[in-house]
């Protein structure tokens, strides 16, 4: 490398100047600063026995390295100290080694054994640092050693060491690309790691070593999505960028329908025949092809998962994370959802100017495609005189992109102030921008043109020149109208000296000479005079002008043209000589000239198309936004193309994780729709294996077990569905621990096979065998647990994460089976039983928590705290929601009305609203809100309407029609619709009269977020059977003395929540059912009464938050 | 990702270099110097430069250039954000981020850089974690060190933060005085046009925290009126879910100083500007002179005094000198940079400060056609202009009673008056 030569120079330089390398260090500076015995003192110090002297020497050496001075001749002396006991000396020696090992390969080998010893150290940090240094010294000989070390570290107990292993992978890869295959194996293994610590690093390794192996991601996709929020910020960036690419290959374009409409072309569905894995599916598709086209697009739940889990990261303090999420949304989200990123991006504009620079580049690209997104933030792009020029120019770009008919006047007014700026480059850019606005928006073209013409009298030449260039472009669009402007510009030729501007004027006059027949020859005359002193581009245009005039007005200009051509003939520039020769042949007919001269007129005076003034950022979005390549508008080395959307989605089942995955619990609880036949079958097998063990530990009885394991033959067990639910829930929890060690997994595989065979045998036999096996495993697991360290803790966190992220429900294979079973089964378990089950479930959760700290003694304090806080976190979630729900719902009348605007605040106008519980006809997903306006003032109120609606994302409002007149003392009603997105977030807006505006907000009680549905008793039971476990909330209560009869209970419940009653055989139970308005999730409520006013309320709802809040509300209604 | 880092001072000397992969010759910086030559101001150097084999990504902070070399595709913001983080860490360790301080602590700096990146990928960027591995220099320790001759600025215990799930906090924190302070600082960004109407105005806020609490406290900070907050960004310690559901900040704080959140106040609420400016700056064609007359007055200050009021004007190049009189405060005119600074201090509503006088122009130069804009600086203590109020701070997880304090401050951000 050129580095060594640079250092030799340095050496020479530094020794001639007698400056001590360690200049910062006054204590030693005086004693040791000798020029000629370079480094001898250092060597001496390094050889001494005193650690303090060694340290001192190392510090000086490191200071030399930092300044870029050569210290390589000290290598032997330094490397001896690699085994030094003093940790600080050691660290500095490592720094030195990493820097110089490459240059002194042989000597560096001396240190290797120390690192190898370090790799075996019981302390994880020493293991990690040994691996870090070992992998950082770029010595080819040790590649096999490194490979071995990485492999070993990848299965280390400590996640920190595994993280280091992930970091080491790209190092080894750059040293020896031959190792790629082996490294991919390691990457694959580390990708399966469940700790947040490792995730970011391994994805980075993946991106550097094998970004093309997208198939490795399938199995880890959901895990990565769920872990994402807990990964450190740098890892988040890498993961999000990678997932963007992944999603582009795996999901369908959410804006597909629109683009189909736009193009209107017949895109065949036959193009994707190559996908051989899914031939069957493919065939189906072919059969359905015409159908499929009309089929509405349904987003893959995994696609949705990604979008949902990245969204909170828009709130990150790290600009890179925000940008990564923004580009993900831009490239992957449906059009309507992209808007959420605008606010976050605008926020970044407050940051350092470098951040602004990058963000603005990206905003400029985005604003071309999605102008509406940034329009509300127009003012954030206004330019301050203190902004650096590059920022100004970019802001201008964005403003121009955002300009449309409605805001153009404000933008032009802004531009007007910019033109006066002292920064001339910026002024020039502004003029360009005005030109672009004028071409894009027809209405303002004349205004802009006039404005630009005024600029022609500006004193600054640069401004004038730029204006001329832009005016030329504008005039080309409609020259006939503007001959006076052309005349004006012709006069300018005397003053303007900027060549580009002169050339533009000449071209314009030549092009439109018939509009200015008198002036044009005169201009040519002047130009002919000054021809020899002009710049080349001006000369070319003079020739051009001459030729055009000759063709249109040869009488007046023949001689002039001859003169100009003669001058050009002897010009120094060969381009000009060529041009002159060429034109002479063309326009002056001689005997020799061929047929071409006949067409001279056509050649020169052809109609030229008006130029399109385009943004330089147009179509830049084919680069992944936020990338270096996008910024440079050129492909940077190592850039991974963002693939186009597939025409048909690849098989989504590849992402299903079959064995012991985090997500299993989520899927069993909420049943992810795309669960395919095969995997669900596998899962079932799984359950059969696992169940005996867990049922043992939970003390469940044998017979139920055997019945359940025979579920395919459907023996119609007592509590079939319920059991399965709780069983699988706890099973997956346990399985996470289980997957810690690989051996175990293998064993499980064996188990599975065994069980398959066993199934054919009588049930009892197989069961006993299993349980004994399970016993063994239990022991093993315990010991394993004790060994394993802090890893489990992060597992747990991600686990809670995933359980919170519920996925949208739809029918699935597994689902259907359950339903069948439920239908066959006898009446659902009694509340008491449910209760115990629920307790068990909680127990198991707590068990985990208690278990954890003991398993990882090293970080005990942190750990136990964390797990506790997690539990409180989870509790906090449900508690907190109660705060939001208005507690004052009392069942007085069927429709409770709330005050929106008090008459005192409203200056006489008072507004009340109630939830009318009528379906809102314009949009079924909206809750109808009936508002009653009363004018208590003495004067009339006019133009009552709403404005400035401010909503949480996803929420929508259908405004009520404007009330034109409300006379004093009168009352009027209006209905509006609000889509609350199944949340109790308030909708804020302004209520306006002709004189005033009032800020108001409507917050729905949770009971109004649903609409009643009619279910039969059987249906109710079936649905309830599916909404158990986490989705079920039970609360005991004592009924108010007044409401112990059925009638009042029904009345109070239906007042509190918009539910309908479900018929029920027993008079001890009241059942209610409804669906949430937006997502249509089922909400089931049961009130079971007992003697003495004791009762139990059960709410089943897939949306846990809604469920908890509803319990609170109903409880309140029943006890008051 | 990040290959090498060069620190370059204002005059273009490379005074520190660090390579995370193989060494790249410092001659690569020549491309940067070329760009720097072309740009008039250091701020105008493009942050990303392309050279035949490398990409140079640069930030400018504290009169220093942090120049990083990248060889392959890497998100530019990633690199920029990281470089700023490096500068933040230096600031945190040494109190300031300047050439002399870095040169004085070159070994510590080098060790920090070594820890912050591994093979060009960020490893430990939390100041709490780094401080456990590499101790910041303190006066006391340097005295002890010189007396005893033992030098150690490397921790011998191994950091726990790196391994835990709350990497921003170190374990085993102990204080005798447990205290938590929060500064709510709001900045007004505004553009006011010639006639005094507001072109745009918005409020950006930040909550800076200084938390010195023993153990592992879990804090909840809630606001009286969280609805004011329109857009927020958080330190990673804040639990986002709690914010979404309750609009309260729940977090386990890092130890020491940190930025808890940044927020933007929703633009629906009209921003009340605390001061108004009456100005007239004019240049005359006849004779090389101009006139300047500026008066600043209070507008909406809610009874608080406006302090540290300052007006900065970047004059056109043609303005040679200024001959002015100020009724309050003092003014300076820097001939080299053409910047006029009028330092007013406290704003007295009874007697409005005024700056008046004439400007002399370069002889022969044409009169400047544009008027310079005024940049206003001000401070108002004990008030957050948006009206945001902290309602309470609760602590869980620890038994002692901490001392809690909240301070409010309003400042002018990018407050510009066009003339």
From TrEMBL, chain A:
Gene3D superfamilies tied to this protein: Leucine-rich Repeat Variant
Q: What is its main location?
A: membrane
Say yes or no: keyword Membrane present: yes
> Which regions are flagged for Low complexity bias?
712-732
Biased composition annotated in UniProt, kind: Basic and acidic residues: 679-693, 775-790, 832-841
Subcellular locations according to the entry: Cytoplasmic vesicle, Clathrin-coated vesicle membrane; Golgi apparatus
Q: Which GO terms describe its cellular component?
A: AP-3 adaptor complex; clathrin-coated vesicle membrane; Golgi apparatus
User: Which terms are listed as keywords in the entry?
Assistant: Cytoplasmic vesicle, Golgi apparatus, Membrane, Phosphoprotein, Protein transport, Transport
Q: Which SMART domains match?
A: AP3B1_C
Quote the Pfam families the UniProt record gives: Adaptin_N (PF01602), AP3B1_C (PF14796), AP3B1_C_2 (PF24080)
Q: Name one GO biological process term.
A: intracellular protein transport
Ranges of compositional bias, category Acidic residues: 272-282, 733-749, 791-813
Location of region: Disordered: 1-34, 263-293, 676-841
Composition bias (Polar residues) maps to: 1-17
Highest taxon, organism lineage: Eukaryota
Q: Its membrane topology, per UniProt? A: Peripheral membrane protein
Q: Where is the AP-3 complex subunit beta C-terminal domain?
A: 838-985
What family does the entry list? Belongs to the adaptor complexes large subunit family.
UniProt function note: Subunit of non-clathrin- and clathrin-associated adaptor protein complex 3 (AP-3) that plays a role in protein sorting in the late-Golgi/trans-Golgi network (TGN) and/or endosomes. The AP complexes mediate both the recruitment of clathrin to membranes and the recognition of sorting signals within the cytosolic tails of transmembrane cargo molecules. AP-3 appears to be involved in the sorting of a subset of transmembrane proteins targeted to lysosomes and lysosome-related organelles.
What is this protein's record name? AP-3 complex subunit beta
From TrEMBL, chain B:
Tagged with keyword NADP: no
Membrane topology (UniProt):
Peripheral membrane protein
Cellular component annotations (GO), alphabetically ordered? clathrin adaptor complex; cytoplasmic vesicle membrane; Golgi apparatus
Compartments where located: Golgi apparatus; Cytoplasmic vesicle membrane
This protein's major location comes to: Golgi
Q: Which residues form the MHD domain?
A: 177-418
Keywords assigned by UniProt, alphabetized? Cytoplasmic vesicle, Golgi apparatus, Membrane, Protein transport, Transport
* GO BP terms in the entry: intracellular protein transport; vesicle-mediated transport
Q: Give the function comment from the record.
A: Part of the AP-3 complex, an adaptor-related complex which is not clathrin-associated. The complex is associated with the Golgi region as well as more peripheral structures. It facilitates the budding of vesicles from the Golgi membrane and may be directly involved in trafficking to lysosomes.
Per its record, how is this protein called by name?
AP-3 complex subunit mu-1
Q: Which organism is it from?
A: Gasterosteus aculeatus aculeatus
């Amino acid at each position: 490398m050129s580095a060594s030569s640079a250092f030799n120079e340095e050496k020479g330089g530094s020794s001639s100047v007698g400056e001590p390398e360690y200049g910062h260090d006054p204590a030693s500076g005086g004693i040791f600063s000798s020029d000629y015995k370079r480094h001898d003192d250092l060597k001496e110090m390094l050889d001494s026995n005193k650690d303090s002297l060694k340290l001192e020497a190392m510090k000086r050496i490191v200071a030399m390295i930092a300044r870029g001075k050569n210290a390589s001749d000290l290598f032997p002396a330094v490397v001896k100290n690699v085994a030094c006991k003093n940790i600080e000396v050691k660290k500095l020696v490592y720094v030195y080694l990493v820097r110089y090992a490459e240059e002194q390969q042989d000597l560096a080998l001396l240190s290797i054994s120390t690192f190898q010893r370090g790799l075996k150290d019981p302390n994880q940090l020493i293991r990690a640092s040994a691996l870090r240094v070992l992998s950082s010294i770029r010595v080819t000989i040790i590649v096999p050693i490194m490979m071995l070390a990485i492999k070993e570290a990848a299965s280390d107990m400590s996640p920190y060491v595994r993280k280091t292993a992930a970091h080491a992978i790209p190092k080894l890869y750059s040293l020896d690309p031959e190792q790629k295959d082996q490294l991919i194996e390691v990457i694959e293994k580390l990708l399966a790691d469940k700790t947040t610590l490792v995730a970011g690093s391994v994805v980075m390794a993946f991106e550097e070593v094998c970004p093309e192996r997208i198939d490795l991601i399938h199995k880890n996709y959901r895990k990565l999505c769920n872990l994402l929020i807990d990964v450190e910020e740098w890892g988040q960036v890498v993961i999000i960028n990678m997932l963007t690419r992944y999603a582009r290959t795996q999901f369908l374009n959410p804006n597909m329908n629109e683009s189909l409409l736009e193009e209107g072309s017949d895109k065949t569905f036959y193009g994707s025949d190559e996908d051989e894995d899914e031939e069957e599916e493919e065939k189906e598709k072919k059969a359905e092809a015409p159908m499929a086209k009309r089929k509405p697009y349904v987003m893959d739940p995994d696609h949705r998962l990604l979008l949902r889990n990245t969204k909170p990261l828009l709130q990150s303090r790290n600009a890179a994370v925000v940008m990564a999420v923004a580009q993900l949304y831009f490239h992957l989200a449906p059009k309507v959802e992209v808007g959420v990123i605008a606010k976050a991006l605008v926020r970044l504009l407050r940051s350092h100017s470098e951040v602004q620079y990058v963000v603005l580049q990206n905003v400029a690209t985005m604003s071309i495609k999605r102008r509406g997104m940034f329009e509300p933030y127009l003012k954030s792009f206004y330019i301050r005189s203190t902004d650096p020029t590059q920022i100004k120019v970019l802001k201008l770009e964005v403003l121009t992109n955002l300009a449309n008919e409605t805001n153009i006047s404000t933008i032009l007014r802004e531009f007007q102030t910019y033109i006066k700026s002292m920064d001339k480059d910026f002024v020039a850019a502004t003029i360009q921008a005005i030109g672009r606005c004028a071409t894009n928006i027809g209405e303002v073209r004349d205004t802009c043109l006039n404005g630009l013409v005024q600029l022609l009298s500006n004193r600054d030449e640069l401004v004038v020149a730029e204006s001329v260039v832009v005016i030329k472009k504008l005039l080309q669009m409609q020259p006939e109208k503007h001959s006076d402007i052309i005349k004006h510009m012709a006069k300018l030729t005397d003053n303007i000296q900027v060549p580009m501007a002169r050339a533009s004027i000449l071209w314009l006059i030549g092009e439109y000479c018939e509009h200015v027949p008198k002036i044009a020859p005169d201009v040519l005359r002047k130009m002919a005079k000054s021809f020899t002193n002009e710049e080349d581009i001006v000369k070319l245009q003079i020739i051009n002008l001459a030729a055009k005039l000759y063709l249109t007005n040869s009488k007046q200009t023949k001689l002039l043209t001859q003169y100009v051509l003669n001058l050009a003939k002897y010009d120094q520039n060969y381009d000009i000589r060529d041009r002159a020769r060429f034109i002479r042949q063309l326009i002056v007919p001689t005997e020799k000239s061929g047929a071409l001269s006949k067409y001279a007129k056509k050649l020169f005076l052809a109609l030229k198309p008006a130029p399109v003034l385009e943004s330089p950022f147009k179509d830049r979005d084919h680069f992944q936004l936020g990338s270096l390549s996008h910024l440079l508008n050129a492909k940077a080395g190592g850039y991974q193309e963002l693939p186009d959307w597939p025409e048909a989605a690849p098989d989504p089942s590849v992402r299903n994780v079959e064995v012991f995955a985090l997500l299993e619990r989520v899927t069993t609880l909420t049943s992810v729709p795309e669960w395919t036949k095969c995997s669900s079958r596998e899962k079932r097998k799984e359950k059969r294996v696992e169940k005996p063990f867990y049922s043992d530990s939970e003390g469940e009885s044998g017979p139920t077990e055997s019945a359940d394991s025979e579920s395919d033959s459907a023996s119609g067990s007592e509590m079939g569905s319920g059991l399965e639910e709780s069983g699988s829930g706890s099973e997956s929890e346990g399985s996470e621990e289980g997957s810690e060690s690989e051996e175990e997994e293998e064993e499980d595989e064996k188990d599975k096979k065994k069980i398959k065979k066993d199934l054919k045998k009588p049930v009892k036999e197989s069961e006993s065998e299993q349980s004994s096996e399970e016993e063994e495993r239990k022991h093993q697991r315990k010991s394993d647990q004790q060994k394993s360290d802090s890893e489990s803790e992060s597992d747990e966190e991600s686990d809670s994460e995933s359980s919170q992220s519920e996925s949208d429900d739809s029918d699935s294979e597994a689902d259907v089976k359950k339903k069948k079973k439920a239908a066959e089964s006898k009446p659902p378990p009694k509340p008491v039983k449910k209760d115990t089950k629920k307790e068990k479930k909680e127990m198991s959760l707590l068990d985990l928590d208690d278990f954890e700290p003991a398993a990882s003694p090293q970080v005990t304090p942190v750990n136990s705290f964390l797990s506790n806080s997690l539990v409180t976190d989870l509790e906090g979630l449900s508690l907190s929601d109660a705060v939001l729900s208005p507690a004052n719902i009392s069942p007085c009348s069927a429709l409770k009305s709330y005050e929106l605007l008090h008459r005192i605040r409203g200056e006489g106008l008072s507004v009340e609203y109630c939830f009318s519980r009528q379906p809102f006809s314009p949009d079924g997903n909206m809750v109808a809100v009936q508002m009653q306006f009363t004018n208590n003032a003495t004067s009339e109120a006019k133009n009552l309407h709403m404005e400035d609606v401010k909503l949480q994302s996803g929420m929508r409002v259908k405004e009520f029609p404007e009330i034109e007149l409300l006379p004093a003392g009168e009352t009027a009603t209006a209905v509006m619709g609000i889509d609350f997105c199944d949340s109790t977030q308030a909708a804020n807006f302004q209520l306006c009269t002709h004189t005033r505006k009032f800020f108001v907000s409507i917050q729905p009680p949770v009971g109004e977020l649903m609409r009643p549905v009619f279910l039969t008793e059987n249906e109710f039971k079936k649905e309830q059977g599916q909404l158990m476990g986490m989705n079920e909330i039970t609360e005991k209560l004592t009924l108010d003395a007044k409401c112990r009869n059925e009638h009042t209970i029904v009345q109070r419940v239906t007042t509190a929540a918009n539910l309908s009653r479900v018929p029920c055989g027993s008079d001890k139970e009241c059942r209610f059912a409804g669906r949430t308005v937006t997502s249509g999730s089922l909400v089931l409520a049961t009130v079971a009464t007992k003697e003495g006013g004791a009762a139990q309320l059960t709410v089943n709802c897939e949306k846990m938050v809604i469920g908890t809040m509803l319990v609170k509300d109903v409880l309140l209604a029943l006890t008051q | 990702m990040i290959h090498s880092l060069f620190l370059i001072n204002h005059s273009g000397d490379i005074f520190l270099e660090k390579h995370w992969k193989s060494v790249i010759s410092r001659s690569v910086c020549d491309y940067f110097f070329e760009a720097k030559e072309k740009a008039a101001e250091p701020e105008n150097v493009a942050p990303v430069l392309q050279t035949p084999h490398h990409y140079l990504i640069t930030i400018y902070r504290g009169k220093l250039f942090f120049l990083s070399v990248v060889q392959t595709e890497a998100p530019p913001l990633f690199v920029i954000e990281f470089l700023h983080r490096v500068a933040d860490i230096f600031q945190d360790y040494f109190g300031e981020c300047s050439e002399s301080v870095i040169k004085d602590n070159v070994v510590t700096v080098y060790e920090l850089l070594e820890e912050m990146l591994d093979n060009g990928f960020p490893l430990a960027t939390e100041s709490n974690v780094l401080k456990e591995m590499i101790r910041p220099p303190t006066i006391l320790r340097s005295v002890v060190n010189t007396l005893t001759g033992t030098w150690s600025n490397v921790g011998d215990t191994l950091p726990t933060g790196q391994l835990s799930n709350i990497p921003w906090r170190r374990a085993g924190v102990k204080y005798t005085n447990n205290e938590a302070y929060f500064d709510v600082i709001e900045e007004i960004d505004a553009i006011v046009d010639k006639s005094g109407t507001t072109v745009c105005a918005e409020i950006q806020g930040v909550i800076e925290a200084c938390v010195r609490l023993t153990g592992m406290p879990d804090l909840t900070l809630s606001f009286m009126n969280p609805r004011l907050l329109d857009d927020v960004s958080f330190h990673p310690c804040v639990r986002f879910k709690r914010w979404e559901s309750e609009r309260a900040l729940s977090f386990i704080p890092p130890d020491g100083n940190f930025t808890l959140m940044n927020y933007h106040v929703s633009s629906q609420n009209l921003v009340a500007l605390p001061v108004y400016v009456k100005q007239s700056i004019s240049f005359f064609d006849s004779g090389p002179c101009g006139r300047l007359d500026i008066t600043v007055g209070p507008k909406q200050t809610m009874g608080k005094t406006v302090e540290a009021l300052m007006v900065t004007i970047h004059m056109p190049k043609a303005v040679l000198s200024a001959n002015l009189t100020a009724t309050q405060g003092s003014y300076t005119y820097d001939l080299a940079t053409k910047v006029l600074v009028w330092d007013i201090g406290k704003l007295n509503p009874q007697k409005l400060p005024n700056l008046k006088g004439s400007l002399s122009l370069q002889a022969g130069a044409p009169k400047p056609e544009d008027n310079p804009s005024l940049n206003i600086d001000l401070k108002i203590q004990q008030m957050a202009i948006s009206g945001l109020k902290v309602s309470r701070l609760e602590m869980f997880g620890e038994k002692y009673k901490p001392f809690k304090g909240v301070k409010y401050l309003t400042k002018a951000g990018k407050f510009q008056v066009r003339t």
